Amino acid sequence: MAAPKKGRGPAGGQSRPGRALVLILIAMVALTGGMFLSGHTTPRLGIDLAGGTSITLEAKSQPGKPDAINPTNMNTAVGIIERRVNGLGVSEAEVQTQGEKNIIVNIPKGTNSEQAREQVGTTAQLYFRPVLTVQAGGPGEPVPTGSAKPSGSATPSAEESAKAGDKAKGDEAKGDEATSPGSPSASATTQGRAVTGALKKDPTPSATDSAKPKSSKSPDASATPSADPATAKLQEQFAKLDCTDPKQRTDAGKDAKPTDSIVACGSNTPGQYEKYVLGPAEVSGADVDDAQGAIDQTTGEWIVSMEFTSGGAKKFQSITSRLSQQQPPMNQFAIVLDGEVVSAPSVRTALSKNAQISGSFDQQSAEDLGNILSYGALPLTFDEASVTTVTAALGGEQLQAGLIAGAIGLALVVIYLVAYYRGLAFIALLSLLVSGILTYTIMALLGPAIGFALNLPAVCGAIVAIGITADSFIVYFERVRDEIREGRTLRPAIERAWPRARRTILVSDFVSFLAAAVLFLVTVGKVQGFAFTLGLTTLLDVVVVFLFTKPVMTLMGRTKFFSSGNPWSGLDPKRLGAKPPLRRSRRANASTDPKEA
Fold this sequence. Notes:
- There is one protein chain.
- By secondary structure, the chain is of the alpha+beta class.
- Helices cover 48% and strands 16% of the residues.
- The chain contains 18 helices and 14 strands.
- The protein has a five-stranded mixed beta barrel. The chain has a four-stranded antiparallel beta sheet with strand order 2-3-1-14. Strands 5-13-10-9 form a four-stranded antiparallel beta sheet.
- A hairpin with a 6-residue loop joins strand 9 and strand 10 (302-308).
- The longest helix is centred in the C-terminal third of the chain and has 33 residues, at 490-522.
- The protein is elongated and about 110 Å long.
- The two termini are 21 Å apart.
């Protein structure tokens, strides 16, 4: 008895299709279970479907820095803006460059989206400046002659210093304090907020000396404000400044150089503004390593903790050491963003690497200030070139139109399959259903995992994928039909057709995936959503055809409905014009040719 030859199984045979079906069933259950357990049962929608705001920021040329607008600084700004917005929990936000000097920020409608939009608008550099003068923010207020002047200023008189001290004490009574943990006596106050941190007293006397105004004139000789033209101009700006005017409040000191003395506005209480004369910047936002809003475990109040870089800590210690020797209000330093004072604590002792701002904070204001301190230092200054708002209703209409288009496309595919392939259409529809389940669950999970947002182009990519997936089924069905036309029965035809169909499917899907990958790499924005979805569904097409369509086809070939060539099976040999069975033809040839007997 001859031993069976090795490798004589069906060509491309799959003797146990149940294994592949169990594998893909496990994958579907795992993905569906993960989707429900994660709580993300629907894909995250992009701005064009969910509604939201699209902001175009245009970089401005900076005086003395003609080459500041370059790809490196633009990419750095993108990263900072993205971290700033995402720091508010708006993880769906999309920040990207467009052209040489524009940045597009897309903020979907949802939690903290309005707050994020406000922070996107504040994109200029962050500085810490010493306070020279502070008073109510209305116009026409005279400049206190006791305040420190930008240069060549006089020492304030005793009466004026007393008035300034009384005002500062009043601010302290309702203001912020900066104390070291365990050192409540060391404090720094500001309007309604406070700074606390690791404090270190500077023992060197030079700190006091450096705080004295540098002038060759005696105090009496320089008492006239007009003695210095720069001082006179600054005083004039200060007197005219009306911080209740939104435009003046925004423009004051916005385009000034870090080395300039400026006038600026600030507000601690909504509707109430203060105006300041501020000295040159001594610490920049780049010197802040980290800042965040948190709850003080001792007092239970909201605070903002700051941590400086090694270089920033030295600068901050120097300025706070010097300011701690001054009389109010010249012992304050202002945190200035976009030329606007966001906080101005006063200093009574030197602060080092770690500090805390505390006082009249709630959760939102503490987190806002921490976010600004962490991500406020940008290498460029930007203006809002345009702001476009997409309503949720418009997004819903676009999504509905996309779903209708997908339903129409799917219906046309189903009609074609049923009309031409009849019973085989059942296998194709089951495969499309499995592909749809896998695509939906993966998209839902990719939202929280990598921030994938389903936009309108992505929906178009999913619609195109219906045709790609259906094309794979058609290739396989036609290969099976070709084998039946050659006179083979269904079961051998299924196995012999698979290797040829498999090669065609892999080549076709490889080309589609390559096109999607190239499109994803060379494009930006919403087009990437189309490319990503197209690439994802192409990969899933390979998985479904190998692990579902082929095994199901093998199992269906064992049923009487398909194996008997039922006219409604789509595999009727007579309708396909099949030749006589190969075995019967060989037997007829053997009986008529004696040489072959």
